[in-house]
Amino acid sequence: MFRKSIGLFISGCILASVWGCQNETVPKPAGQLRLEYPRAEYVHFENDCPFTFDINEDAIISKKGDCDFTISYPKMKATIYLTYKPVKNDIEAHLRDAQTLTYKHTIKADDIVEQPFLNEKSKVYGMFYRVGGNAATNAQFYATDSVRHFVTGSVYFYAKPNFDSIMPASSYVKNDMQVLMETLKWK
């Protein structure tokens, strides 16, 4: 009887170890890319152009014409394109061009939200556009004094416009662009 008990015990241990050692396949949880950027610190930018503004101190600004600039974010592969045009009794044409440029993205955009901007003290009036979805740009703006100056800005990423992937970077740059617009002053 003792032998039979030992035989059953050993058989039970072998069976338990065979069935117990099988790894159960468990799906991995969905991972999320976590991108964190430093808190933006702004510095005043001024040169010989008829306007000034504040810019993120981590951005690289380059002059690309009379008063046209690129503001680059190399780590995010993003660039803000800033264009200045003098107003010479053609404000309607400038407004139409700025709006046309924004609404060309409706093919890929999920939505375009217009946010009017008004700074009576500095005489800066404009519109900030937030473009949702997989469009080539996620933010654009124009600003003017309606008499002499007109500035447009748009941000582009040098990556496939997959909104979910670039969302942290696009939010960061969009905030910088909004600060630029809100601090714009004419000379």
Oligomeric state of this protein: single chain
Strand content: 35-45%
Largest sheet, spatial ordering of strands: 3-4-5-9-8-7-6
Q: Residue ranges: pLDDT <50 for 5 or more in a row?
A: none
Largest sheet: 7 strands, antiparallel
Q: How many strands in all?
A: 10
* Percent helix range: 25-40%
* Mean pLDDT reading: 86
- Count of helical stretches: 3
Q: Name the structural class.
A: alpha+beta
Shape: elongated
Strand/helix succession: HEEEEEHEEEEHE
Distance between the termini: 106 Å
Radius of gyration: 29 Å
Overview of the structural elements:
- 28% of the residues lie in helices and 35% in strands.
- The protein has 187 residues and is of the alpha+beta class.
- The strands form 2 sheets. The protein has a 7-stranded antiparallel beta sheet, with helices on both faces.
- A hairpin with a 4-residue loop joins strand 4 and strand 5 (78-86).
Short description:
The chain has 187 residues and is an alpha+beta fold.
Features:
7-stranded antiparallel beta sheet, alpha+beta, 10 strands, 187 residues, 3-stranded antiparallel beta sheet
List the helices and strands and how they pair.
Blueprint: H1 2-20, E1 42-45, E2 51-56, E3 60-63, E4 69-73, E5 78-86, H2 91-103, E6 109-119, E7 124-133, E8 139-144, E9 149-157, H3 163-182, E10 185-186
Antiparallel strand pairs: 1-2, 2-10, 3-4, 4-5, 5-9, 6-7, 7-8, 8-9
